[in-house]
């Protein structure tokens, strides 16, 4: 039966019959949409949940309280207080002596070594700094909180179960007992993790900190901002206000759009071949990192700045020109001040992207193991996301926490930057 | 003078020139009363003087700084003792490395050979001479230009026009940086890739199925040849990208549809930014998430079903990459869906269509080119994504379509080939540039197609 021959009643019946099926399809479709949204939200929660669950504990670290006696016999047997001797003295022995005083019943080389293993090797460095900065402390007694070893820290934080088999927790049964004894005395506790914010990288999880990476990131971002903001704004002003419509400007525009989508690793190849290979700039330097990230963020900043310029109404330009201003005066005195908030927003978003970028930095060698905190843009350095990458590769249990902690620091910076951008936009956004 | 101090003092000199030029223009017309006789504002005369004083001198300094290293090395190479000059090219590169390290102060001169130490001392001496000459030249240029321009200031000098021409030129140069970047990318990648293709034929690279770039250090070592067939890498990249798109396109598309067409505006205003948070998370974070959480999860899930899942399975990398791309797809699709005029929807409702029928048969069809463009852009993102795969995908080049096995990708290989100290002329290093060239071309083509599709579509409603 062809449709033209249907009577109205038949059509009505056909529609009514199909309604239930169509409504089911409607509900199903809607359900798919809802599921997709929920899946997306679940991913967000899951991602941040795991990172924070693994990383929040990094802000606290296990410290051991020791009674240290700055024994003149060990530090300075000659009694000369010669600074060179003070630096090279055996501070490890001081730490050991105080641990041994706490557990006098422990005998035997193996057991003693296990006991000494509870305290981080950073403890002796701390004592060394204490004595070299203030030699008058020699011969006195002092109670100090020193870093515990990372295996102890993992146990205290419950990342490693106390009743786990011995070989799985990297601590022996007697070490666990000593830890329990120390805890009962209140001589082993979680305190604010200063080392995480004041140290550079280290092979020992308990001593590894983000300071070096953070400073490296800030130096890199400084170079990036100083170069990319003026160049980006300049390019946007030229293209939006001065450029004649010709083939060259078309090429420039297409180019900018394409550059925005070039994978970041290709920029790393450019940096390696050009800046390091051709111009002979140093490897691993924040300067080169800044150059590469400048080229990477330029398209973002140019596109945002052009949008900000476009948002300034033409009447303002016409008024300025009508008063006899030249085009440059019109732009510099009238258009730019109105467009600056939008441009800054774009710049901050570009910087946030640069801060999270790591692939191009791998190419130019900012992945080295660097303990010292960089002092300038020519020093070898690494960056915060690269530090995350480096730590994520290490086998120690403690580094999972460090990595998540570094990610939290990184995310906090990104949050602050993006929030600033949003605030700036909301505060200065004008509707003409 | 160190370069940074030199640049700062040149800027100071330009500032002095500004003041001089400004004062001169006022003197020429007899003080502030005569200002109406000036062609331009006094500040323009100051700027003109400052630009002439600062720009050429700065240009000279920057050019010299860019080429200094090469010039000095060339000068030193010419006067090296014969036994150093007769070294092979590898040895000579090592010699230069030592030399640079001594110059930079990384190694004390006592630790290297006397020839290197002497060369380093010579380098430092030449560098000192060059700095002195550069300082003198830059200042001479700046001061002479300043004085000449100052002497030429007359009441009818069209200072504003000249200044604006120069500034406009500078703005043009800024916009040229983008083009120069592209040229730089093409030059550096193509140049190194051609050198690679001189060693390994292009057909072997593009169609070979065996990838093991380990080159022996000595010729007599076992397995010294190395194979550079990149097909397993391309296949691995495609596999992971395909998994990513299988995750991202349905979720991204459906959530865009739901948020644009069904969700109340309050829900939309909360959920949309929340989903977009995923776009702002650095990719290393995703990589870490894939390694520590998703990988082990899939492994246990696979074991419980009796499947063997590799620790660095393509599935884990692809899944996490898909999560990363969701907001990318959803916000592009959202733009396209909201761009469809309401009148089209109203027309469909008037014919008795349900909401989902309207969406499927009217809205999505109208938005299709835009969505396709967005998906193409997302694919190009997935192909070029580096950190997730570097951390979560494998290193071994397996030619397989099984998502539970470990595969490697183009970007992973670029990173592994280039990270660490390598010389520029081994095929291993050059192979990375060849891979970079392929990556650049593929993403570029995808972008051009995507932009073309999107643009073509947008014109329909305008």
Describe the structure.
The complex is a heterodimer of chains A (432) and B (462). Chain A has three domains: 54 residues; 140 residues, no CATH class; 218 residues, Orthogonal Bundle (MetI-like fold). The longest helix of chain A has 48 residues. Chain A is mainly α. Chain A has a three-stranded antiparallel sheet. Chain A contains 19 helices and three strands. The model of chain A has no long low-confidence stretch (mean pLDDT 88). Chain B has two domains: 155 residues, no CATH class; 235 residues, MetI-like fold, CATH 1.10.3720. Chain B is 76% helix and 1% strand. A two-stranded antiparallel ribbon of chain B has the order 1-2. In chain B, 40% of the residues are buried. The chains are: A mainly alpha (432), B mainly alpha (462). At the A-B interface, helix 1, helix 11, helix 12, helix 13 and helix 14 of A face helix 2, helix 6, helix 8, helix 9 and helix 10 of B.
| Fraction of residues in β-strands of chain A | 5-15%
- Multimerization state: heterodimer
In the CATH scheme, the class of the largest domain in chain A would be Mainly Alpha
Instruction: Give the SSE order of chain B as H and E letters.
Output: HHHHHHHEEHHHHHHHHH
Query: Residue ranges of chain A: pLDDT <50 for 5 or more in a row?
Result: none
Question: Which structural class should the secondary elements of chain B be placed in?
Answer: mainly alpha
The helix count of chain A comes to 19
Radius of gyration of chain A: 32 Å
List keywords for this structure.
heterodimer; A: 432 residues; mainly alpha; MetI-like fold; 3 domains; three-stranded antiparallel sheet; 3 strands; flat; B: 462 residues; two-stranded antiparallel sheet; 2 strands
């Amino acid at each position: 039966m062809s449709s033209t021959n249907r009577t109205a009643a038949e059509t009505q019946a056909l529609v009514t019959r199909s309604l239930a099926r169509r409504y089911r399809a409607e509900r199903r479709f809607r359900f798919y949409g809802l599921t997709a949204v929920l899946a997306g939200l679940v991913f967000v929660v899951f991602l941040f949940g795991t990172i924070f669950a693994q990383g929040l504990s990094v802000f606290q670290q296990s410290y051991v309280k020791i009674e240290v006696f700055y024994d003149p016999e060990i530090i300075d047997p000659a009694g000369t207080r010669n600074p060179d001797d003070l630096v090279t003295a055996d501070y490890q022995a001081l730490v050991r002596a105080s641990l041994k005083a706490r557990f006098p019943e422990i005998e035997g080389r193996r057991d003693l070594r296990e006991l000494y293993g509870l305290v981080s090797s950073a403890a002796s460095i701390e004592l060394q700094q204490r004595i070299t900065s203030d030699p008058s402390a020699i011969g006195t007694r002092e109670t100090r909180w020193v870093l515990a070893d990372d295996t102890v820290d993992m146990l205290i934080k419950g990342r490693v179960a106390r009743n786990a088999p011995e070989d799985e927790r990297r601590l022996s049964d007697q070490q666990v007992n000593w830890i329990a004894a120390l805890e009962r005395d209140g001589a082993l506790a979680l305190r604010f993790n200063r080392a995480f914010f004041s140290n550079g990288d280290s092979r020992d999880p308990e001593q590894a900190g983000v300071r070096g990476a953070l400073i490296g990131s800030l130096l890199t971002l400084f170079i990036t901002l100083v170069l990319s903001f003026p160049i980006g704004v300049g390019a946007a002003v030229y293209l939006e206000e001065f450029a004649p419509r010709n083939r060259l400007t078309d090429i420039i525009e297409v180019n900018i759009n394409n550059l925005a989508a070039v994978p970041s690793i290709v920029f790393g190849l450019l940096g390696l071949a050009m800046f390091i290979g051709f111009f002979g700039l140093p490897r691993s330097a924040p300067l080169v990192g800044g150059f590469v990230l400048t080229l990477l963020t330029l398209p973002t900043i140019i596109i945002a700045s052009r949008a900000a310029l476009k948002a300034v109404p033409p009447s303002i330009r016409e008024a300025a020109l009508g008063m006899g201003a030249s085009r440059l005066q019109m732009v510099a005195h009238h258009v730019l001040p109105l467009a600056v908030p939008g441009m800054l927003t774009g710049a901050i978003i570009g910087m946030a992207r640069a801060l999270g970028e790591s692939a191009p930095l791998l190419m130019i060698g900012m992945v080295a193991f660097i303990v010292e905190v960089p002092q300038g843009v020519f020093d070898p350095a690494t960056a915060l996301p690269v530090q995350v990458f480096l730590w994520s590769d290490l086998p120690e249990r403690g580094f999972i926490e460090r990595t998540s902690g570094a990610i939290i620091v990184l995310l906090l910076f990104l949050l602050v930057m993006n929030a600033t951008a949003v605030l700036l936009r909301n505060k200065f956004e004008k509707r003409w | 003078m160190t370069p940074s101090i030199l640049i700062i003092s040149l800027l100071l000199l330009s500032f002095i020139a500004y003041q001089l030029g400004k004062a001169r223009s006022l003197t020429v017309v007899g003080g502030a009363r005569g200002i109406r006789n000036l062609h331009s504002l006094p500040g323009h005369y100051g700027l003109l003087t400052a630009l002439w004083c600062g720009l050429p001198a700065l240009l000279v300094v920057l050019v010299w700084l860019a080429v200094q290293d090469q010039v000095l090395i060339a000068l030193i190479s010419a006067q090296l003792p014969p036994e150093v000059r007769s070294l092979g090219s590898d040895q000579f590169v090592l010699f230069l490395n030592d030399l640079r390290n001594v110059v930079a102060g990384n190694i004390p001169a006592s630790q290297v050979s006397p020839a290197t130490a002497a060369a380093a001392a010579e380098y430092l001496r030449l560098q000192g001479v060059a700095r002195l000459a550069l300082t003198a030249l830059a200042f001479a240029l700046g001061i002479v230009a300043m004085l000449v321009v100052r002497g030429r200031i007359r009441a009818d000098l069209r200072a504003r026009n000249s200044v604006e021409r120069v500034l406009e030129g500078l703005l043009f140069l800024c916009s040229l940086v983008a083009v120069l970047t592209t040229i730089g990318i093409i030059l550096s990648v193509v140049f190194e890739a051609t050198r690679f293709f001189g060693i390994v034929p292009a057909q072997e690279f593009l169609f070979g199925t065996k990838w093991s770039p380990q080159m022996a250090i000595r010729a007599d070592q076992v397995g010294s040849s190395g194979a550079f067939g990149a097909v397993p890498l391309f296949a691995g990249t495609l596999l992971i990208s395909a998994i990513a798109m299988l995750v991202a396109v349905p979720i991204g598309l459906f959530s865009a549809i739901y948020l644009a067409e069904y969700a109340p505006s309050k829900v939309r205003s909360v959920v949309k930014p929340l989903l977009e948070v995923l776009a702002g998370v650095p990719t290393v974070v995703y990589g870490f998430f894939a390694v520590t959480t998703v990988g082990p999860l899939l492994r246990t899930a696979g074991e419980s079903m009796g499947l063997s899942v590799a620790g660095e399975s393509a599935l884990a990398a692809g899944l996490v990459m898909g999560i990363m791309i969701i907001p990318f797809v959803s916000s592009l699709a959202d733009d396209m869906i909201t761009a469809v005029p309401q009148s089209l929807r109203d027309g469909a409702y008037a014919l008795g269509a349900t909401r989902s029928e309207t969406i499927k048969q009217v809205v999505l069809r109208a938005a299709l080119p835009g969505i396709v463009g967005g998906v193409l852009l997302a694919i190009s993102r997935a192909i070029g994504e580096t950190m997730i795969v570097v951390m979560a995908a494998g290193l071994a080049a397996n030619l397989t379509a099984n998502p539970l096995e470990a595969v490697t990708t183009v970007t992973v290989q670029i990173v592994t080939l280039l990270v660490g100290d390598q010389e520029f002329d081994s095929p291993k290093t050059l192979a990375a540039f060849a891979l970079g060239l392929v990556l650049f071309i593929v993403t570029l083509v995808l972008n051009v197609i995507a932009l073309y599709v999107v643009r073509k579509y947008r014109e329909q409603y305008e």
